[in-house]
Amino acid sequence: MKKAVRSLLFITLVITLAAMTFGQKKDKKDKKRYERPEIATPDIFRASDPTASNADSSIGDLKWFEVFKDDQLQALVKKALVANYDLRTAIARIDVERADLGITRSNQFPQVGGGAELSTGRTSSTAGSSGGRHTFGSVMLNLLTFELDIWGRLRQQTRAAKAEVNASEEDRKAVMSIVVGDVATSYFDLLELDRELDIAKSTLVARQNSLDIIKAREEGGLATMLDVRQAEELVYQASQTVPALERSIQQTENAISVLVGDNPGPIARGMSLTDQQELPSIPTGLPSSLLERRPDIRSAEYQLEAQHALIYAAKAAYFPQISLTGALGSQSSSLSKLFTGPSSAWSFIPQLAQPIFTAGRLKNNVKLARSQQELALIQYQRSIENAFREVSDALIAYQKVKEIHTQKELLVTTLRDRSRLAHLRYDGGVDTLLNALDADRDLFDAQLSLSQTKRDELVTLVQLYKALGGGWQ
Question: How far is CA 461 from CA 64, 176, 347, 398, in A?
Fold first, then answer.
């Protein structure tokens, strides 16, 4: 028997040393401590201002209420940051990850529990003994159930869980940035629709007045019925635009209500579309600082860090698991003597478990962890490249929309003067009504387009702010 025990201990020792040697060879493929991957970042963002490209300051560093000055917009954003359902979901996910971290971390510490047992039984009468009914009792306190984390498996699992919590925190910040951007964009959409409605109503009044004049001229024989019908056409075009805009306004208000966690209802306005303040300059900062400012990039990196830790947790499964179990209590065949006399009992059991043959399970667990780390690395690199593209696209859009806005202002000024001159020529009898109506129609379309371009200019500012990592501070 003793020989068999010694043989078993010898075999266990050999397997343990082999596992340790194999694990050390595996460790050479990876660095034990996580290090951020090297990422080639451009010196400047494409389409950024070359004179300000090296500035450390960025619009992304500003708080959202420093960018959006409208009081009503600020009130909506504040409400959304408290009641928005997507944001509340992100916060709930953080609580889930924190609870999971607590569960994972608890495995590193001893577990203590207690138990009691009471049993009765009858033993048969045999030579030298007397049969009868006996009561057996035991009360045991499990003082220790503890795995010695010599190889760091539990520590690496805890490290991965911490990284998951940090990733969830960054996801919350990313949702905040999205919520701020969505509220601001929808609010500017609403102001633009208000502006279009004002233009449509004022145009409808002007066209109705023109129609009344033309009808009077037709009755006096100075205009034809064709002139009346053409003027009526413009009136009806403007009149049908009004309810269409009112429908869009109410639907946009409903969308904003949902963003701020309210039932559908009207939305208070602050400054008009044309009175919205813009930043005097749009600094972008250094591209390298985007890695620290964008929460989605930071979340992807934490996911990468978690997968890195899980690789070493998988490798640690090659090594023996050593656990300690200890208990202290009382046992007695008589309940009256359960806590007195020589009834105390204790046990201390060290245990060692070494995997011998797992049909490739441990090896494939390590391969799985490495593959998941590679996927996390690809996602991290992709999020960075996507961030650079979003910033560049937003910069290009902001610059070009400003240029378009300038040209459309000139166009509206020209068409307004053209409409005035065309109506003067018609009233003077030197031109047809068709030219005056065409000029009026072109002016109306240009005014609506200018209003939309002003909205686009504000929305591209929102997009640039969000692309640079702003909105969650």
Answer: 12, 17, 71, 6
Q: How is residue 61 written in tokens?
A: 């560093």
Q: What pTM, to 2 d.p., does this model score?
A: 0.81
Report how far residue 418's alpha carbon sits from residue 421's, in angstroms, rounded to the nearest whole number. 5
Tens of pLDDT along 275-332?
988 877 788 888 888 888 999 999 999 999 899 888 888 888 788 877 777 776 666 6
Q: In the chain, pLDDT over 90 holds for what percent of residues? A: 39
Tokens of 13: 């020792």
What is the token pair recorded at 223?
Answer: 């205009």
Alpha-carbon gap, residue 389 to 352, rounded angstroms = 54
* Nearest Cα residue to 287 out of 467, 460, 63: 467
Q: Are strands 132-148 and 344-353 parallel, antiparallel or unpaired?
A: unpaired
Cα 28 off chain centre by: 36
Would you say 198 and 245 are in contact if contact means Cβ atoms under 8 Å apart? no
CA–CA separation, 176 and 88 (whole Å):
10
Q: Which domains does the chain have, with CATH numbers?
A: 17-110+152-320+361-467 (1.20.1600.10)
Least trusted range by pLDDT, from 4-8, 209-213, 293-297, 394-398:
4-8
Q: Helix/strand/coil (H, E, C) string of the chain?
A: CHHHHHHHHHHHHHHHHHHHHHHHHHHCCCCCCCCCCCCCCCCCCCCCCHHHCCCCCCHHHCCHHHHCCCHHHHHHHHHHHHHCHHHHHHHHHHHHHHHHHHHHHHCCCCCCEEEEEEEEEEECCCCCCCCEEEEEEEEEEEEEEEEECCCCHHHHHHHHHHHHHHHHHHHHHHHHHHHHHHHHHHHHHHHHHHHHHHHHHHHHHHHHHHHHHHHHHHHCCCCCHHHHHHHHHHHHHHHHHHHHHHHHHHHHHHHHHHHCCCCCCCCCCCCCHHHCCCCCCCCCCCHHHHHHHCHHHHHHHHHHHHHHHHHHHHHHHHCCEEEEEEEEEEEECCHHHCCCHHHEEEEEEEEEECCCCCCCHHHHHHHHHHHHHHHHHHHHHHHHHHHHHHHHHHHHHHHHHHHHHHHHHHHHHHHHHHHHHHHHHHHCCCCCHHHHHHHHHHHHHHHHHHHHHHHHHHHHHHHHHHHCCCCCC
Whose tokens are 């607590």? That residue is 102
Q: What is the amino acid identity at position 82?
A: V
For residue 246, give the amino acid letter: E
Among 9, 20, 102, smallest CA distance to 316 is for: 20
Report the Cα 461 to chain-centroid distance in Å.
20
394 Cα distance to chain centroid? 19
